[in-house]
Amino acid sequence: MNLAVISTIVLGVLLLVMTLLFIFRIVMTWYPNIDVNQFPYKLAYLPTEPFLIPTRKIIPPLGGIDITPIVWLGIFTLLREVLLGQQGIITMAMR
Fold first, then answer.
1. The model's pTM
2. How far is Cα of residue 7 from the mean position of the Cα atoms in its chain?
3. Where are the domains of the chain?
4. DSSP the chain
5. What b/e string do you get for 17-34 counting C-beta neighbours within 10 Å, with b at 16 or more?
6. Radius of gyration of the chain (CA)
7. What pLDDT does 80 receive?
8. TM segments (predicted)?
9. Which of 23, 45, 77, 88 could form a disulfide with 36 if both were Cys (CB 3.0 to 4.6 A apart)?
10. Per-residue pLDDT, 81
């Protein structure tokens, strides 16, 4: 395996993990009384919160519901498709 293939795999895994974490954050918004300092919730809270803090300044909660995790889920999904999808930039460059 060359470096380009390994880099692509690492990027794919990173984007997949972030996508899953933001899905978990969306579910966490359904339960506002969750203590984010407890074990399973902290795993999703710590890596995603740096993305969400500045986004909340731009996009306020709608009807008391924080929609910023949905925005970032869309961004990471789009990035994964644009870079690594069947017609993705990196996928096409490696052919």
1. 0.88
2. 18
3. 3-93
4. --HHHHHHHHHHHHHHHHHHHHHHHHHHHT-TT--TTSHHHHHHHHHHHHHHHHHHHHS--BTTB--HHHHHHHHHHHHHHHHHSTT-HHHHHT-
5. ebbebbbbbbebeeeeee
6. 16
7. 95
8. 6-24
9. 45
10. 94
